[in-house]
Amino acid sequence: MTTADTSMTHGFRPPAVPDVDVRGFWGDRIDAIADRTVMILYERCVAAGMLDQMDPDRPVPELRLPFHTRPDGTPDTANVQMFWDSDIAKVIETAAYALYRKPNAELEARIDEIIDMFHRLQQPDGYVNSWFIRMQPGRRWTNLRDCHELYCAGHLIEAAVAYFHATGKRKLLDVMSRYADHIDAMFGPGPGQKAGYCGHEEIELALVRLGRTTGEQRYLDLARYFVEQRGQQPHYFDLEAAERGADPKQFRHRTYDYNQSHLPVRQQTKVIGHAVRAMYLYSGMADVATEFGDDSLTDALKVLWDDLTTKQMYVTGGIGPAASNEGFTDYYDLPNESAYAETCAAVGLAMWASRMLGRGPDRLYADIMEQALYNGALSGLAVDGARFFYDNPLESAGGHHRWKWHRCPCCPPNIGRTVAAIGSYMYAVSADEVAIHMYGESTARLKVGSTPVTIGQRTDYPYDGRIAISVGLDEPASFRIALRIPGWCRAAKLSIDGEIVDVAAIEDRGYLRIDRLWQGGETIQLDLSMDVRALHANPAVKADLGRVALARGPLIYCAEEVDNQAGLNSLVLHGGPGNARIVPMDDFNGAVAIDIDARRERWSGWERKLYDAEPPVLENGTARFVPYHLWDNREPGEMLVWVRAQR
Amino acid sequence: MTTADTSMTHGFRPPAVPDVDVRGFWGDRIDAIADRTVMILYERCVAAGMLDQMDPDRPVPELRLPFHTRPDGTPDTANVQMFWDSDIAKVIETAAYALYRKPNAELEARIDEIIDMFHRLQQPDGYVNSWFIRMQPGRRWTNLRDCHELYCAGHLIEAAVAYFHATGKRKLLDVMSRYADHIDAMFGPGPGQKAGYCGHEEIELALVRLGRTTGEQRYLDLARYFVEQRGQQPHYFDLEAAERGADPKQFRHRTYDYNQSHLPVRQQTKVIGHAVRAMYLYSGMADVATEFGDDSLTDALKVLWDDLTTKQMYVTGGIGPAASNEGFTDYYDLPNESAYAETCAAVGLAMWASRMLGRGPDRLYADIMEQALYNGALSGLAVDGARFFYDNPLESAGGHHRWKWHRCPCCPPNIGRTVAAIGSYMYAVSADEVAIHMYGESTARLKVGSTPVTIGQRTDYPYDGRIAISVGLDEPASFRIALRIPGWCRAAKLSIDGEIVDVAAIEDRGYLRIDRLWQGGETIQLDLSMDVRALHANPAVKADLGRVALARGPLIYCAEEVDNQAGLNSLVLHGGPGNARIVPMDDFNGAVAIDIDARRERWSGWERKLYDAEPPVLENGTARFVPYHLWDNREPGEMLVWVRAQR
Predict the structure, then answer these.
(1) B562-579 per-position pLDDT tens digit
(2) Fewer Cβ within 10 Å of end Cβ, chain B: N or C?
């Protein structure tokens, strides 16, 4: 339908979504999104009143904040309408991938209507933002810190690129290119330009995406400017506040840590503040590093990557433990039941990881990308595609369930667009190499340099570690194929057309890198061992002391009440994972559960006392664990990832 | 020097403090208070500027809030000067007991000066409150909810009674009796009277104490009125707010749960709100129940007692887990490291327990009283008497240490007066019975009915369970002696003058009740077994899952870094407490430590990773536990009560 990026000067790039036909595990999920989620997203945006705000032909609506009370019934004053453009943009992006997957004339017509609204909304100078055009006219570019203005532009740009790739329609791409030109004129170091950047990062990565699609270098340069300018002194958010007559110190989130503008980006060494913002910034930085071959930026990102993944990440790939700042707190502060671990943040981590792979295959990044996608991100979407988690705790006493919607509706379309675009996370290409970062039943039509290559995968991954990879070519060609050996895999076997290959000899940073003159028609057989692991957490993570999390392949497992009765914390595993059995699940296509011997403390008799010198009686039994991403898809109840264990 | 209460119509009453000469464990602590603490308290109150506010002959001072910034350096707007009268009152009370213990002319002169200030401060109508006379004149009795006005009166009444008992001086007692008369005229159901009560309970128990000392029934009646009126509709705090032109809904603590006025007291079934307030209310209710023989009030208290002690109490007897309301949260919410467990709250629990014994000996109350006093309360005072804990966590990563002072200086004099008055918690008398609630080296000069009885205890309790009790009489007399058998004691042996007594035959609600014609000169030998216990918490207390707390006798033990090196959470006890050894401590007079076999996880090698399928290596070793109340008296470091345990 279309090709991927037009320019290709540095590093590895993901394919465009339509270039990968995904089936199997992820294919079922994409079908659910195309069949159901995307229309739900659209309808709920309409019900929320978003189109009334965006359509310039309708009367300017009153402020309305639907679905908009705190759990205790009191009204909340935060204004989410200000960034509705970004929500509708992610719906458009999800719809683009859904339309590619399954043509749907009714959906396409509705998306075209929305695109028309933005087209009509666009000002003569190119500016497009429904909030500042219709709700708060005259205030544009006066509060970049709080108002998500460039953030909205970024998501609309991403939507425009996706819709163009999926449908070939250019209208939104043209609107957003004009808007990008306006932003490019407005921001920069020149006289009369604003030396600012957005309080919520996103525009950076979007401009790179737009630059790659349009071939326009100015967009890449502007992305780089926003990255470089962040956190410079005098601080733009101070100047901007003073200019609008506000006290810069009266910032709701107190310090600029919150939006990662406390320091210039190369001086930042601690992952900090609002988790989604942090991930989007680092994603943009990685894109700029790839585009400009900027090692100093990559080095800064490596420090941040290490900081996040060795001190601040849940085993699910969820990040940002605290609700108060939707973000990071202290090192090793990873409480399970109160984990915020927003779906968008896990999505953002996968985005960042994917972009770290822009400098070349490295398991350090791909392992975490996979961990976040299969666990902390995917848990945000029900199997039927109709309900959503905003926060993704690793333990629930039974009261945590998926929402039909959320007053801050960022997560539903974000997990929707991410799952629907999963093909672009699975593969990457450079001028002379194809990398397979994630395995899964799929067919990818790629271009290595100028050589068209079709890669097919036949596999039941992630439930089975055997993958048959076919290489399709129009004519023989020399290039490299890089196959990831996940860090969790204890033994990998490789053969090409039946001929066994010594994997140790060709492994580089966790990838088997196969240089060869490919004839086309080869079958690469990769067998990854997939044992049940009992993971221990760093002992500084207090919440997980004396506990283990079961895992198999890329999947983190959890216990649910429906399989184990209530009182999951009365379960105590004994010995290692050696006695674990793999059991097919009835409810979910191809999914496997883990049954494991466990003792259980008898908790009856404790109702009337708080402390007792008699230990609880232990009973022998079995516990069942299911993939974390599947939890809360059956009868509601307790859930537990980190289960008590003794040796 | 003086006798105990003058009236004796119902139940059991504690002796006046000077009637019990305490030595041994508590005696050392009382000496430290007399030698050091009391002068520290006085001097820090002076340094805080309290006397400038109280002395009517000095210029009215400006508002000043010494020691008064938050840990992060920002100023705090809460006003503690409003209740300085109560702080100085508790200092006077502590000084009274110290002066009884050790004459100190200089201290006595200074206390007399303060008493003179209150004497000069007293208004012609009897009113005495330094804040409303000098700092906010004209506002008296306009905000009982927030301003601690009757609370201050209550503490000054307690100080007056104590100072009278200890020194025989009546000046403060007379001042406070006149003030009580004024309050009695001001509050009540009559025309022109206010139907109110204090937002911070205290006046109730103080009026009972004043009534018992002066024999004035009106004070008992007024105490009862305040108890009965609490939480009645229309709600006094609503009416009062409206009268001063305020919106009753703009209450900082949102609901009247905070001060236990959300319901009439007999309808309250859940211990709720600010912990110290709750304890003082229940103490006052128990006093009223004793004085008026009010079973319905006692029944309400039994429900609350059960609620607190089976669902909301730390194993140390600490209560009120949350800093936000200085009080209670959800059932079984007992986090260890963030435990607020204010010293004053544990003191308040001991006060309540002591008063529940007013209706007769019952281990249900005395066990908890002892648990709170020896652990969660006593921990608030350093062994040398010079430093104080405000909050008493059950775990520390090494950063929690005693304060020299606290901006809200309620705890230092509260633990001071309580320890100095410990004799009044140890014994109680009725018309025909002496109860020994707590054991300890001491001599008590009591009156059973009109019979003088001297009870002596020779013992190393709480470090040893053997107690020799002597009965001294002027002439033979028939009465009962009740000896508590603590719930933790697995085997008790009793002999009188060498003759073994069958304890099972005479046990009633955990007390051995010995009816006898005593000749005088008898020796009662009581041997309480004192095994090391490994306590398990109710499994609903998530913080304690898979952990045990070691205890011996009434003492809860903890591990400290100084004995065990850092990383206390790497310790894992195996098996029960059978391998525990009792070891004398070098540092503290007579104290014993517990050494116990333990494994230790090797935590080195975890610096660079967050999760690992390899379990940490276990090493065999020994762990040392010391009495919780002694923690942070040696080199600073980590502390842990609930230690990991496996079976």
Answers:
(1) 999 999 999 999 988 988
(2) N
Tell me the mean pLDDT in the region A56-77.
63
At A645, which helix (H) or strand (E)? strand A642-646
Chain centroid offset of residue A498 CA: 37
Confidence of residue A64 (pLDDT cuts 50, 70, 90): low
Distance from CA of A551 to the nearest CA of B (A): 9
The DSSP element (H or E) to which B180 belongs, if any, is: helix B171-186
Phi, psi of B462, deg, nearest 5: -90, 10
Contact B23, B29 (CB under 8 A): no
pTM, rounded to two decimals:
0.91
Residue contact B545–A569, C-beta within 8 A:
yes
Q: Which of A65, A194, A64 is nearest to A140 (CA)?
A: A194
Average pLDDT, whole number, for chain B? 94
CA dihedral B325, B329, B334, B340 (to 10 degrees): 10
Q: Over 60: is that where the pLDDT of A3 sits?
A: no
Written as one string, the DSSP assignment of A188-199 is SSSTT-B----S
Calpha distance A384→A387 (Å, rounded):
8
B534 CB neighbours in chain A (<8 A) are 613, 615
What secondary structure does DSSP assign to A343-395, as a single string?
HHHHHHHHHHHHHHGGG---HHHHHHHHHIIIIIIGGGB-TTSS-B-SB--SE
Q: Is residue B27 pLDDT above 80, yes or no?
A: yes
Name which of A34, A41, A4 is nearest A20 in CA terms. Answer: A4
B240 vs chain A: nearest CA distance in angstroms? 26
Q: Which residues of B touch A (CB under 8 A)?
A: 309-311, 313, 315, 337, 488, 533-542, 545-546, 549, 551, 567, 569-570, 572, 576, 601, 603, 606, 608-616, 618, 644, 646-647
The yes-or-no answer on residue B489 being catalytic is no
With bands split at pLDDT 50, 70 and 90, how would you rate the model's confidence at A502?
very high
Residue type for position A640: L
Give A399-413 pLDDT, tens digit per residue: 999 988 777 788 899
Q: What residue type is assigned to position A107 of the chain? A: L
Q: Is B337 a catalytic residue?
A: no
Measured CA distances, B495 to A544, B362, B473, B501, B502 (Å): 52, 22, 19, 5, 9
CB B472 within 8 A of CB B499: no
User: What ipTM goes with this model?
Assistant: 0.93
Is-contact A496 A541, C-beta < 8 A?
Answer: no
Has residue B613 got a pLDDT over 80? yes
Instruction: Check pLDDT > 90 for residue B584.
Output: yes
Using a CB–CB cut-off of 8 Å, the residues of A that contact B are 309-311, 313, 315, 337, 488, 533-542, 545-546, 549, 551, 567, 569-570, 572, 576, 601, 603, 606, 608-616, 618, 644, 646-647
Burial group, residue B613, by CB count within 10 angstroms (0-12, 13-18, 19+): middle
